[in-house]
Design a protein that fits this description.
By secondary structure, the protein is of the alpha+beta class. The chain is built from 14 helices and 12 strands.
């Protein structure tokens, strides 16, 4: 009887254990099934986030306030300063039909980047909404040129299964509708720039911001924005992420500054790689006007094209005098046709930020504006552009140390003589050197590392919640230059004196005698 009783007790206990086990298992399964799949997202600064997690970029989360100080520029306060407000962080929504989107992809595939497609645009800026029907959109860029939709086995757009890719665009609000309603703060064209090989998402905007702080009015304005593109038929817009928006350099750019240029109806040249301004080699240059054929001419006339032959003769004569004049003759001539102080202060910024893809090194990325069409009587202005290859980025093909290189011997002065010939004169060299030292002084809110780094961190706090996007590119801030950098160890947020670009550049400038 005792054995039987123990056996019954044992079986009873086993039943209880099995019952409890299954009860707990069923409870766990119930809780698992009923718990929503919620994980931390980049929109929750308390939880952190992961670049692969989904989030809603349309949420209006608190944005780190940013109110920069710039020198007074009354000529632009009613227009550019409102549109290109670094603290506004606007939303740009673009909608295109399926057929127009296919035309855009075809334009990319056949190297016809000048082709505009029709689109509708909504812009949310500083609490106001602006809508533009039938605007124009095209792909832009040279080394940064990319297809916004990765090519699949078929060229057909695959709705809701698209492999998106960040690309740079030109948005022309007035391309197809020529009226004032298709301008925003007197601006009709906006460059939408993805952060090409720049995981810090700030290099180009830092440079344009620096020009503005330094009072260089010939440089474009810029700011951050957020970009969506909706191809009709897709269930939702594609969020392309945080972009830079940059003022376009065209005849409207000149007109907005006509009091400063002295005139706005004459000759604006876009100067691409190979634009040496050297009379000895100009006959091997391609000089033409903007003919919408997508050819990268060395010198391309962007305005006043009906007077192309006169403008070309003026440009060539400028190159001849620059190349052949020496000494007092050169000094008297260049100071009569050019604001040399403005030019040298502009170029000081260019060298201080380590822009190797420029005129002096690569005979690239600048504009010239002549404010008359007279072959001898004019004032010529140097307009800087394209600053993604800065602050330690790129330079590998030239093996140039962009931080430590002597600022007085920045590039090839034989091939590209403009700046070097000015620096031959003691008073002009003094302007250039003083500007460099002013830029790096801790007393000024410019590019001393104790001023530059906090400014960049403020921008990052403003945009970081919105970095993750449908292309899965540039979804996090990484303090490192692109893979083609000649100095991959350089950093801009790490303050260590042996790697920080700002500190190393300041040392090179302080070493100038």
């Amino acid at each position: 009887m005792l054995v039987v009783g123990r056996k019954k007790t044992y079986l009873c206990n086993m039943r209880k254990v099995i019952y409890i086990f299954y009860t707990l298992l069923l409870s766990a399964l119930f809780v698992w099934a009923c718990t929503p799949d919620v994980e931390p997202t980049p929109n929750d600064p308390e939880e952190g986030g992961n670049a692969k997690e989904e989030f809603d970029p349309n949420l209006d989360l608190p944005i780190e306030p940013y109110d920069p100080y710039y020198p007074s520029s009354e000529w632009s306060e009613e227009e550019l300063a409102k549109l290109f407000n670094m603290g506004a962080f606007p939303k740009i929504h673009i909608e295109v039909s399926l057929n127009e989107w296919k035309r855009l992809l075809e334009a990319y595939d056949y190297m016809k980047d000048y082709t505009y497609i029709h689109c509708d645009v909504d812009i949310e800026l500083s609490g106001e909404e602006y809508s533009f029907n039938d605007a124009g959109l095209r792909i832009r860029g040279y080394s940064s040129r990319r297809r916004p939709e990765v090519r699949q086995y078929s060229d057909t757009h695959n709705a809701d299964k698209t492999d998106w890719q960040q690309s740079s665009f030109m948005l022309n609000l007035r391309k197809f509708q020529k009226d004032d309603a298709h301008e925003l703060y007197n601006v009709r064209k906006i460059n939408l720039r993805h952060f090409f090989r720049d995981a810090t998402c700030c290099r180009e905007l830092f440079c344009y911001d620096l020009f503005r702080r330094f009072g260089i009015w010939t440089a474009p304005y810029s700011s951050y924005c957020r970009l969506w593109i909706h191809v009709k038929g897709d269930s939702k817009p594609a969020y392309f992420g945080v972009y830079g928006m940059v003022e376009s350099i065209d005849d409207k750019f000149i007109k907005r500054r006509k009091e400063l240029f002295g005139d706005h109806k004459h000759n604006l040249w876009k100067c691409n790689c190979g634009a040496h301004l050297n009379y000895d080699t100009y006959d091997r240059s391609l000089i033409y006007f903007d003919d919408n054929l997508g050819i990268n001419y060395h010198y391309e006339l962007k305005s006043n094209i009906e007077n192309f032959e006169v403008a070309k003769a003026q440009l060539i004569e400028f190159m001849r005098k620059l190349s052949e004049y020496e000494g007092e003759e050169l000094y008297n001539w260049i100071t009569s046709v050019c604001d040399v102080e403005l030019l040298l202060r502009t170029y000081a910024v260019n060298v201080a930020v380590g822009n190797w893809d420029d005129y002096w090194v690569n005979s690239n990325n600048y504009y010239l504006y002549f404010n008359t069409s007279d072959i001898d009587q004019y004032e010529v202005f140097f307009i800087p552009c394209d600053f993604d290859q800065t602050l330690g980025n790129g330079g590998g093909s030239y093996h140039i140390d962009v931080a430590r290189q002597n600022p007085l011997m920045w590039g090839d002065s034989e091939a590209n003589p403009l700046v070097a010939k000015l620096l031959e004169f003691e008073d002009l060299r003094a302007i250039y050197v003083e500007a460099l030292k002013e830029l790096c002084s801790e007393q000024n809110d410019l590019m001393h590392y104790t001023r530059a780094i906090p400014r960049i961190r403020q921008w990052h706090r403003m945009v970081e919640k919105y970095l993750y996007n449908d292309t899965e590119e540039n979804c996090e801030i990484v303090d490192a230059p692109g893979k083609d950098s000649s100095n991959p160890e350089y950093r801009i947020l790490d303050e260590s004196p042996d790697v920080n670009f700002f500190r190393l550049k300041a040392q090179a400038i302080e070493a100038i005698e």
